[in-house]
Amino acid sequence: MRLALFDQDRIGLVDGDHLVDVTELLAGPGPYGPAGPLQRHIERGTVPDPHDLRGLPRTPLAEAELEAPLPRPGKIVGAPVNYLDHKAEMAYPTSIAELGVFLKATSSVIGPGRDVLLPYSDLRTDQEGELAVVIGRTASRVPVADALSHVFGYTCLLDITVRSTEDRSTRKSFDTFTPLGPWITTADEVPDPDALDLRCTVAGEQRQHTSTADLIFGVAELVAYTSSVMTLHPGDVIATGTPAGVGPIRHGDRITVDIERIGRLEVGVDGSRATPYAERPGRRARTGG
Ligand code: MN
Predict the structure, then answer these.
(1) Distance, CA 92 to ligand 1 centroid (Å)?
(2) Within 13 Å and on the Cβ side, how many CA atoms surround 90?
(3) Which residues contact 147 (CB under 8 A, 6 or more apart)?
């Protein structure tokens, strides 16, 4: 199944060029709160009977306003330096094996078609196209061999990043810095998450192209490793890392991430509210003035 969130808290099952409204069927009655009905569905673990789909309302996909499938995940875990070619392009001395994982603020999530807001007018902000894993079952210290059974599904993610000296959790947590979507493809449709073609374009130019086969920590290892640090709960999101080809994004750019079997996420870039880095709050404390 491909499950989208659309038109303010409706769950749409993607059926060709239509969405079948399966909100009550999958999530039960609302209200669903800020985490949304897909979060409720993932927690409930219900499996719909195809017969129940008959007679449900249908909306043309082209007319639906898609939202991030999980507007406020419980947590967003990031994988730093999880492709060797990205390690080389950034001249990083270490990879995920030495760095472990990091966290992004869940308030940074936006949905398809929205704009990434550039915070600084004079610092580079980059795109990082990534495969995202959505957890389906509570995972604590799970072995690699059992890790994929804890995955609900997969989606596309942009791990937008300011290139500066701050900690990763700061540089990657600005509002709008985690575009997510366009929907979640359930794990049964992705038999091998370590063999997916991934492409990312900026302003019509292809910047990133890889196979997830090149991940240093593959999906099962990443889930197992992360669960050895922190308990993963249904609906938590893990960004698996980005391949070579990161680069600056600019006002007016369109960014796309296409992942085989999953879909295409597209967002815009808005730099109209960017301000000089030196004008950020706290400057006086740093200069001692
Ligand atoms: Mn990343």
Answers:
(1) 13
(2) 22
(3) 139, 219, 220, 221, 223, 224, 227
Domains of the chain: 2-67 (no CATH), 76-271 (3.90.850.10)
- Phi and psi angles of residue 158, each rounded to the nearest 5 degrees, phi first: -110, 125
The dihedral sign for the CA sequence 52, 53, 54, 57: positive
pTM over 0.85: yes
Q: What local confidence, expressed as pLDDT, does residue 289 receive?
A: 45
Cα of 172 from ligand 1 centre, angstroms: 8
pLDDT digits (tens, 9 = 90+) for 73-94: 999 999 999 999 999 999 999 9
* 80 Cα to the center of ligand 1, angstroms: 6
Q: What is the pLDDT of residue 105?
A: 98
pLDDT digits (tens, 9 = 90+) for 91-118: 999 999 999 999 999 999 999 999 999 9
In 3D, which of 232, 71, 81, 245 has the Cα closest to residue 155? Answer: 71
Can you give the three-state secondary structure of 159-225, one letter per residue? CCEECCCCCHHHHCCCCCCEEEEEEEEEHHHCCCCCCCEEEEEECCEEEEEEEHHHECCCHHHHHHH
Residue 46 C-alpha to ligand 1 middle, in angstroms?
31
Map tokens 């808290």 to a residue.
9
Place of tokens 């990434």: 116
Residue 37: band (very low, low, confident or very high) from pLDDT cuts 50, 70, 90: very high
